[in-house]
Design goal:
The chain has 236 residues and is of the alpha/beta class. The chain has one domain. The chain has eleven helices and eight strands. The strands form two sheets. The chain has a six-stranded parallel β-sheet with strand order 4-3-8-7-5-6, sandwiched between helices. The two termini are 33 Å apart. The model has no long low-confidence stretch (mean pLDDT 82).
Length: 236
């Protein structure tokens, strides 16, 4: 496993098999885990938003975008880092918990995505005793506090968020920190989207644009940092 630190936040570069194995071991130890699969947007937020850094500090952040290879190589001299495929890694993680009666809650960006994710998992793992509940991120009838109460009532062992649900996670951290001490948590944008198979053209265009801009701004930040490093070395 290779690691590097950006803005005091540690990124762990593992293969998808290593992630699922780690999860499996931690479950056997009855510990709670919190994994964030990090794309360009996550990296952008870590670089530019102080509040976001506080939110993800101490969590396991696993690169899921090729952008991390560029950053790690140019700034930290770390080569051949592992980039996980979110959807296949999620499948392996879920397969590794198949020996347990597992209650999974999926918090997705819309109800259709949460429902499809749930159905596809049941089709893929018919032998597993999974009680899977999908919660939409955008539900006008359910405010944040009501959704927290729903999660408490469901008592899931594992909560899977797509990363657009960070506002909800932030709200939980501020208002009910004990909630995440009871559950294992995974945050994955592409994984939830790919497993659900739901495509919203307008949302996808907006998301692709955001990720492209994240790439651009992160690349500019990396180049700036590299120039400063070279300049400081010459000054010495």
């Amino acid at each position: 496993m290779k690691e590097f630190i950006i803005k005091k936040i540690k990124f762990s570069c593992l293969h998808d098999e290593e992630v699922s194995e780690l999860v499996f071991r931690k479950l056997l130890d009855k510990d709670k885990f919190f994994i964030i699969f990090a794309d360009a947007k996550v990296l952008f937020n870590i670089i530019y938003i102080d509040e976001y850094r506080k939110l993800v500090s101490g969590k396991m952040i696993v690169p899921s975008s090729k952008l991390f290879g560029f950053v790690a190589r140019l700034l930290f001299g770390v080569n051949d880092i592992s980039i996980v495929k979110e959807s296949s890694t999620l499948f392996k993680v879920i397969k590794n918990i198949s020996d347990y009666y597992y209650r999974i809650a999926v918090v997705a960006s819309n109800e259709k995505m949460a429902s499809k994710f749930k159905n596809n998992l049941k089709l893929s793992f018919p032998e597993m005793k999974l009680n899977i509940v999908g919660l939409s991120r955008i539900l006008s009838k359910h405010k944040h506090k009501e959704r927290i109460e729903m999660l408490k009532k469901l008592k899931p062992n594992l909560v899977i968020f797509d990363t657009v649900s960070f506002k909800f996670v932030k709200f939980i951290n501020k208002n009910d920190k004990e909630l995440f001490q009871e559950y294992s948590v995974i945050m994955s944008s592409r994984g939830v989207e790919l497993i659900s198979g739901v495509r919203n053209v307008v949302d996808n265009v907006i998301e692709v644009t955001k990720r492209f801009l994240s790439w651009v701004f992160v690349a500019l930040w990396v180049l700036k940092e590299k120039v400063l490093m070279i300049f400081n070395e010459k000054k010495r």
